[in-house]
Structures are given as C-alpha cells and as structure tokens.
Amino acid sequence: MSRNDEESVNSRKTGERMTLEIKGEKYAFRWISRGSFTMGSPETELERWGDEVQHRVNISRGFWMLESPITQGMWKSVVGTNPSYNQSFFKNTKKFPVERISWNDCQKYIEKLNGLGACPKGFKFSLPTEAEWEYACRAGTTTPYRFGKTLNGDKANCNGNHPYGDYKRGPYLKKTTAVGKYPTNGWGLCDMHGNVCEWVQDWYGDYPTDEVTDPTGPRKGSFRVSRGGGWRYYAVNCRSAFRSRFEPDKRNDCLGARLVLRRLV
Q1: What's the CA gap between 118 and 122, in Å, rounded?
Q2: Measured on CA atoms in the order 166, 55, 106, 24, is the torsion positive or negative?
Q3: Residue 256's pLDDT is what?
Q4: Residue 119 pLDDT > 60, yes or no?
Q5: What is the pLDDT, as a whole number, of residue 87?
C-alpha cells in the first residue's frame, strides 16, 4: 500500500459505513480506526473468569468490520447451502445469523469470498483477531457490556432467566433473532453481545501480561476462540471480556461468525 493510500485509510472516521453487494446480498461494514484499549476484565468484575487477565493492547491498523454477524442469506449465496438449525422457526431467514458453522467452515467460506474479487483494493476478507473483536465490541467502553453493567435479555438476545448484575429476570426467546433487532454500539456494530457466538481467528491460550501490539494469539493449539455469547447463554457469558473455546470442527446452533476486511501487508 502506498503512502497516499495509507494516509487516506488513516483519515477515515470510526463508524464510517461502507456497503458491498456480493452474490445479491448486501454486506455493510463499519470502519474501526486504530487505537489502544485495555483487553480483559478487572478483578473486580462480577463473575469474571480467570483467563480474562487485563493487559494493554495497541491496534496499529484500522480495519472494516461487518456490522452484523454473517447472515444465512450471505452464507447460502456463497456456499450454496444453509446449515442453520434456526432456519426452521421463521418464514424468511435471510437476515438471521447463520449458525451451526465450524471455524473450518468459516475458512472455506472466506476463501470463496476472496476468490470472487469483491474486496476493495488492498484488502481481503478474514475473521477478526480476538483483540480486534474485543476492541470493536467495547467501542471505547470499559463496563462488562458496551451498554453498562447489567443484562437480563432486554438489550441483547441471551437467556434472561439468568441475568447479570440484576436479580430481575428478563426475556428468553429460545432462538436467534434477525440481525440488528437490538441497538448498535457506539461504532455502529450490532449483536456483539448475544444472538450467536462469533468465531475469531486465534487459537485459545493465556493472555500476555505486558503491553502488546496487534496480538494474534498462540501459534498453535487445540481450540479456537469464539466471542460474544449466544441466545442460549447466560448473561454473564455475553460480557465483552468473556472467552469461549471450541475445537475448530465444532458446530452448534449458537456458533456463528463475523467478517473483517483486513489490509494486505
């Protein structure tokens, strides 16, 4: 990428929207500017897990992130089939998140996408890194959720019978919802908490304790990371810092994904 291209990219505003049409489906992306944040959760955060060790992370390059999870319409238009369990509940599921996809399935889907020539010049499709995902999810916030300290199924699709930070039970829909039903975060991203868990690129492992720049996780491992929690998850497991891990070939009706457009090095 030339110096002029680099300067043009860095002048974009966080949350700026860009849409692409691919195989008849609209992909809406939000620009996530470079910056720094504290990843993980403080030891005072209620019901935190021990693998959420706080550390400072620098994101040195901006990227485009899909403003919703990958939808069933997007997936089927590229792959040709729809594996989702939750397609049977609704008349039109094109705008519902695709689920029951493995990490390995995501790599095949992304390979097909990159082969279509639909990327902006100098970019390619990928899964986000774990650090990029949490940076985008938080959107500058430091609370357990981007909207505050409590969740009972009212602000995100989760199991409201098991609320967080509030003893009052809330909705439990027992299925996914169309993407974008709940308000977006400050950077224009929807469904970062709940609805479906989202695969990220990293192998699962311990966090570093020192400040790092553009971390990509361990070089190898047994499990890949997913983030964000899903419709069956208790509210505590939909926090910004919560980490799930699964074998790369794992599929279930809560496992989905979200794309980024990453600049070519």
Answers
A1: 11
A2: positive
A3: 98
A4: yes
A5: 72
pTM (2 d.p.) = 0.94
CB-based contact 187:15 (threshold 8 Å): yes
DSSP string of the chain, one letter each residue: --HHHHHHHHTSPTT-EEEEEETTEEEEEEEE--EEEEES--TTSTT--TT---EEEEE-S-EEEESSPPBHHHHHHHHS----GGGGG-S--TTSBP-S--HHHHHHHHHHHHTTT-SPTTEEEEPPPHHHHHHHHHTT--SSBTTBS-BSSSSSBSBTTS-BS-SS-----SS---TTSSPP-TTS---SSBSSEEEEEEEP-PPPSS-EES----SS-S-EEEES--TTSBGGGGSTT-EEEE-TT---TTEEE--EEEE--
Contact status, residue 189 vs residue 67, Cβ threshold 8 Å: yes
Which distant-in-sequence residues (6+ apart) come within 8 Å of 265 by Cβ? none
pLDDT in tens, 215-235: 999 999 999 999 999 999 999
93 vs 37: CA distance, rounded Å: 36
Q: Does residue 10 surpass a pLDDT of 50?
A: yes
Strand order in the sheet with 255-257: 243-246, 224-227, 197-203, 255-257
Q: What is the CATH number of the domain that holds 201?
A: 3.90.1580.10
pLDDT band at 18 (very low <50, low <70, confident <90, very high): very high
- Structural domain boundaries, residue 109: 3-263
**255 bridge partner residues:** 197
* Confidence at 88, pLDDT banded by 50, 70, 90: low
Helix axes of 103-114 and 72-79: crossing angle, nearest 10 degrees: 70
In the chain, the number of structural domains is 1
